[in-house]
Amino acid sequence: MSDVPPGTADTIAAWGIPSKAESRVPVLCAIVAAIFLQVILPDRLLLNGLTRIIVPALEGLLLIVLLVVNPTGTINPEERALRAVGIALIALISLANAISLIELIHALLYGAKAGGRSLVYASVPIWLTNVIAFGLWYWELDRGGPAARCQPTHRRPDFLFPQMGARGSDPGWTPNFGDYLYTSFTNATAFSPTDSMPLTGWAKLLMALQSLASLVTVAVVISRAVNILA
């Protein structure tokens, strides 16, 4: 049995309710978008060409593995073996974006004023990749992953969505990738949780890291942009 507080099953949606079979197509589209955003970055934000060729190639290889093993794109409880591949792919995207962010900050702080405008523009794909990567992390880790969420015995939620505590909401509601991506976007723009609250330690840690990365990116880019305009 799942961890459901006694007497609250009728008022709290998706707490102990198995998720519906979810399509992996939106997730794969988000991964493709993240790879594209990494490829279009300027050369000076790439670590010796590593994130230009090798990393996107590895990400593409893992993506092909997911497509070959699961050509229908439907997530079900039997696909837990694919979770390691998915986590490796998300980790690779996050690592490559972290390297680009560090290179961006170094170039903006210590680089010459010439070329600063292109670096400011380059911050946009880095910020967007940050949103996609953390949205993927939230989707992959909440309640043990998308496959585990399809089981009635999944562990208690790591995120509290508004529909889960709103009396009168759809009792069969369960989050999908779009909900986690929205959570990531609002956390990156507000630098703090908005409507979706983290409940566990790892969820709070991830959201804090994302807020920090987003805040540093925005602060440094705005500072350099003001300097360029001045």
Biggest β-sheet description: 2 strands, antiparallel
Using only C-alpha atoms, the radius of gyration works out to: 19 Å
Strand content: under 5%
Protein structure class? mainly alpha
* Number of strand segments: 2
How much helical structure, as a percent, in the residues? Answer: 55-70%
Low-confidence stretches: 4-12
**Number of separate helices:** 7
Give the neighbour order of strands across the main sheet: 1-2
Write the H/E string, N to C: HHHHEHHEH
Task: Give the overall average pLDDT.
Answer: 78
In the residues, how many domains can be counted? 1
Please supply descriptive tags for the structure shown above:
single chain, 230 residues, mainly alpha, two-stranded antiparallel ribbon, 7 helices, globular
Mind explaining what this structure looks like?
The chain is mainly alpha-helical. It has one domain (25-229). The protein has 7 helices and 2 strands; from the N terminus they run ααααβααβα. It has helices at 25-39, 50-69, 83-110, 116-141, 162-165, 177-190, 201-229, and strands at residues 159-160, 197-198. Strands 1-2 form a two-stranded antiparallel sheet. α1 packs parallel to α3 (83-110) and α4 (116-141) packs across α6. The longest helix is centred in the C-terminal third of the chain and has 29 residues, at 201-229. The radius of gyration is 19 Å and the shape is globular. It starts with 24 loop residues before the first helix and ends with a helix. Residues 4-12 have low confidence and may be disordered.
